[in-house]
Amino acid sequence: MILSTRKNGELHQSAVDSPVFNAQYDVIVAGLGTAGSIALLTAARLGLQAMGIDRMHCMGGMGTAGSVNGYYFGTKGGVYEEVDAQVAELIGTVYTRSSAYNVDAKKYKLEQLATADGAALAYESTVTAVYLEGKQVVGLQWIGPEGLRSASCKVVIDCTGDAEVCALAGCDTSFGRALDGRAQPFTSVKVFAAGDKVSWRNFDSGCTDQTDSRTLTESILHSHSQHLEETYGEGQRLLHLAPLLGIREGRLIHGEDTLSLAAYFEDALPEEPLFYAYADVDKHGRDHAFESQALQDWFVASNLGAVNISVPVSLGMMTPKGYGGLLAAGRCLAVDHDLSTCVRMNRDMQKSGEAAATAAWLSVDKGVTLQQVPYEQLRDMLQETGCYNPEQDRGYQFSYPGDRKPAEVIHWLSEPAAIREGLASDRPGVAIWSCRRLDQGMREHLLGWMNAPDDQLRRHSALALGLIGERASLPLLRQMIRERDAYTLKDCRKNNQMRGYMAIYLAARLQDAEVVEDLIQLVTDPREIERPLYQPEEAGSRAKTQKYNDVYYQFFSHAMIGLLRIGEFHPHLREVIAQAMRQAVGDLGYIKRITQLPFGTYEYSIADNIQSVAMQELARWGSA
Amino acid sequence: MHNPIPYHPLVVLGATFAGLGAAYSRIDETLILERSALVGYEYINSYHPGEGWQETKLSEKGEDLKAELMRRQILGEDGRVHIPAVAPVMYNRINHDKLQLQFHTEVTAIHEHEQGWEITIYSPSGFSRLLAGAILDTRPEHAPEGAITGKRLGAMLNCGSDEPELPDGETLGVRFGRGKLAGEVMVGLRIEKTDDWLAARHKLHELWSKRPEAWQAWTLSAVAGYFGYEGQPEESSWTERRSFLPSYAYPNPLAALEAGIRTGRELTI
């Protein structure tokens, strides 16, 4: 048998002879957060000998201890709704009303339900090692109040959020985006009493690496410090700072099935869904320019960042590739960084716990491997509880949180007349993306419309042409850059993009050498910031109060990344680009133009990161 | 010969007020190891505001902290305190004062070593070892036998917009207290020392589900994130370069901080 653990940041495996386990279970659920609490509850309810391990002293994770108790999209149905209904009965009678549910009521109800069905709990415990027979997980070791303990099991469901068990076992995982390894920003939550309700407020504090001890500690200190107020008076009464950071993204497993955002756009979807995740590409960060081409094509070039997508999640996406006895549920599912922005919402993560536990039950009950679990039977069980509902395969939708407005189903366009109408409007996103789907099929129409008298149609046709790789769009894209085209499209309820930097992204995507001079001027000219488009519209504007100039940041960051992209394809331009970039970010003056917020804030971190990424890329060119 | 294991003259176990005080006495020489992401939790997160804030004799560091708490209107002249707001103050101070601290770190083993102690820890970076000249343990869960005399589970109440009259003393095992802000009412339910979180939460839930008529309008806004412990404050003694300090047992956080500062200063390294 192999004992697989981590020492000083490195995986460490050693042979162990017949270890004596303190206990044995059918299923161990590691991490009792959003996914794990429902996994444990489901496993116990199905009759499995189940145990749950959690670092905290409660179940529910970010949805309880973390105090993020509202739901943002996701799909309804399944065991979690039954739990929520029981929690609701306690509100106003025993526990104080809250914006959604009272988190202490849910902590209580979850553990009562789980233990009533026989589940064992190991609170204040951290998994430290995995026992393996080859690539079959057969047990776990953890440290808790009673010291190091171990147990054997038939299945481990890794609900740690960070694929901690999978990583300890040696499974392949990934973390963050390709360009700089950064994950989405985390959030920090404070909970307060306001009137007769409990409420909470959060803000994004930067990016962290929660798999690194020192970085995580710094993030906790910085983010919790930012909750400090000048004085504390009547009105909002602080109850506590959440003891968990709101980590939106961690390690992602490489699964038997892995789904990327790019594959999603190509309709290359898993064929055996267990439930549907549903949200927009809710990436939170403002540093769009640092994201992948697939994500920027959608979010920036097509202005569809707030469109919701339905993502089928299969058992293969919960199964670490090549390993047995191990499933993953929660935000570490086998998706890529781009799609993880969407497949992470509380409702869906609870469903992933239910699906994983149900699969574990079938595996144990039938004496088959997890890979051999019959899909139809698993699907039918999940359909019975409402976890799987084929009607939730909604495709693409303009949707609104809290059902503020009815969702609008998106039908991609194929008729030139409809596309022309869309491009001529202030909501051209669907038409632009339709052109991308049709690829060369719309080329001639778009070329013609670029010469039309309608300026909206001309410019949006250039954006669509740029997206399908047509260099004939470049003259108009360059014009939009030179003009710093400040027209903001209106497709979405949030995250609407401005044409000027959409054009920068597309010109760089087309490797346009002619735009380099303009981009250099944008990042190096100290008078750039004086242009009207960068001036807050009014004294009380969001930009001013937040001490952060998002419009300038978008132009500056897209220009910097654009220069790097162009230099990548035009080595003869690297020297001049490198010189300009050093001038642009050589000192911290550029950060002050972007934000007056201090080190430790999210806004400062994304400004600061421009310099880091630029220097890293220039070093790769040999130009640092 | 190069020693690959990092050495710290003093390692403090637990980011309690006493632990922080000890670290303040030797900032550059001290590392604090904390299993959670909390600081000063034995008062702040247990909703145990303490008493006698204005009477506690303070060092310069303690005076400075007290002055900040008063300036921010967290601590009043009457000694009443808005205890949850002490948390961001402490995070900010730790950050600003560059205390060496490591969150989410479990201590898995401690062995004697020629330089003092060898401590094995498990953190997000995995297992690792470090050497300590001395260890000050302030973790209530690791208190010596008999050092904890009582245990409570606290909660913040919502009592509506009124300033209700609260029961004196202890009723049904519940002790009531007021914070500094209007409507800030705390309770602490006496539980068994052996009660774990499951048992403690169940007791509080059961009691509050069947609470007396006079309390009917009061609901649980937030249950404490840490147990309240009771015991007798003790001046620690350094034995074999190891000591325990019951941070939970002092009249208030400032007193616990001072005990930590004194203990840190008394250590001869």
What is the H/E string of chain B?
Answer: EHEHHEEEEEEEEHEEEH
Oligomeric assembly? heterodimer
Cα end-to-end separation of chain B: 22 Å
Spans of chain B of at least 5 consecutive residues whose pLDDT stays below 50 are none
What is this structure's SSE topology?
The complex is a heterodimer of chains A (624) and B (269).
Chain A: E1 2-7, E2 10-15, E3 23-30, H1 34-45, E4 50-53, H2 79-88, H3 103-116, E5 120-122, E6 126-133, E7 136-144, E8 147-158, H4 164-169, E9 173-174, E10 186-194, E11 197-206, H5 213-225, E12 236-241, E13 252-253, H6 261-265, E14 273-280, H7 293-301, E15 307-314, E16 326-328, H8 337-340, H9 346-366, H10 375-385, E17 396-398, E18 408-409, H11 416-423, H12 429-438, H13 443-449, H14 455-467, H15 474-482, H16 499-509, H17 516-524, H18 542-545, H19 550-569, H20 574-585, H21 589-594, H22 602-621
Parallel strand pairs in A: 3-4, 3-8, 4-5, 8-16
Antiparallel strand pairs in A: 1-2, 1-6, 6-7, 7-8, 9-13, 10-11, 10-12, 14-15, 15-17, 17-18
Helix pairs in contact in A: 1-3, 1-9, 2-3, 7-16, 9-10, 11-12, 11-14, 12-14, 13-14, 14-15, 15-16, 16-19, 17-19, 17-20, 19-22, 20-22
Chain B: E1 7-13, H1 17-25, E2 30-33, H2 60-71, H3 86-97, E3 100-102, E4 106-113, E5 116-123, E6 126-137, E7 150-158, E8 170-171, E9 174-178, E10 185-191, H4 197-209, E11 219-223, E12 228-230, E13 242-244, H5 253-266
Parallel strand pairs in B: 1-2, 1-6, 2-3, 6-13
Antiparallel strand pairs in B: 4-5, 5-6, 7-10, 7-11, 7-12, 8-9, 9-10
